[in-house]
Amino acid sequence: MTSIVLTGGGTGGHIMPNIALIPALREKFSRIYYVGREGGREKVFAESAGVPFFGVPAVKFERDKPLSLLTTPPRLLDCARKAERVLRELMPDVVFCKGGYVSLPCALAARRLHIPVVNHESDLSLGLANKLISRFSCATITSFPETKAKRAVFLGNPLRREIFTPAPLALPLDKSRPTLLFVGGSSGARALNEAVFANLDALTARFNVLHITGKKTDRKRAHYFPCEYTRNIAAYYAAADAVVSRCGANAACELLALKKRVLFVPLSNGASRGDQVENARYYVQKGCALSCGESELSANCIQLIERTLRLSPPPYDYDRDTDKKIAALCLKAARQKAHL
Predict the structure, then answer these.
(1) What value does the mean pLDDT take over residues 134-148?
(2) 303 carries a ligand binding annotation
(3) 186 assigned to a ligand binding site
(4) 55 annotated as belonging to a binding site for a ligand
(5) 127 has binding-site annotation
(6) Is 122 marked as binding a ligand?
(7) What does the DSSP assignment read for 170-185?
(8) Which residues are in the Glycosyltransferase family 28 N-terminal domain (predicted)?
């Protein structure tokens, strides 16, 4: 009986890769558990996948509140102690950390209990939690071959297999028009929404416009199809001739793996640690996509869309066995437990 704990949450980028791994992990492990933040959205996804969920507290590192960092170490230790109680109960053979602040208490608890840790970084550069975890993990799996880390192993980003075989999108799209998708994540993005609303008449004069808004909108136009939230993003991807998206690592990988023409609008450095800007710059340099800033999207929306539609399909090759390779590495780490 071999068991594994998955940990990570808060955002889709830290949840969906874990969920994508579950089918491949079931071929290697007899028991799979998910440890995430108490009250976090990862609980719903884990339980929907048939995986028992255990909640623990977590400390978020707030870069815009330097004084709060003074209290972070004692709070983090308290969270790690509570995570340790959960791991003592489960006693997994390995812990797989998807990064993010939710992963850190569980990784620290695993280290204390001599449970092997494997962590995964989706972005071009390591986030703070993964920088700390990589110091003692058996391996840091990366999604980019250029990512630097101790014991780095480039395997790629695990994607849900259903995105490659979506159901049709049940919307009355005009097949004589190109179809655009604006998506800022599963819950939308304010800057992208504002750019769509500011250019809605010009956009709907030329295109079918699919729009994941993240909130209700009363705007109505012919050829405009807003959606507050969807669990069926694969169908929207499949319907789109071009996509305007943030550049979170998971969504970016999904779009490029599907050979979609993409205009990335990354979160600015001020709104994040700069990972989306790095990701977007990398893909533009590789000839896989276009990128622009938020203000540029609003001011030059139609011209940017036209340029995006003229792109060739991205020269991006995705290994569909990534999930199986990650599961195999986790099993290898689990078998080391007896020697720790």
Answers:
(1) 96
(2) no
(3) yes
(4) no
(5) no
(6) no
(7) -S---TTS-EEEEESS
(8) 4-137
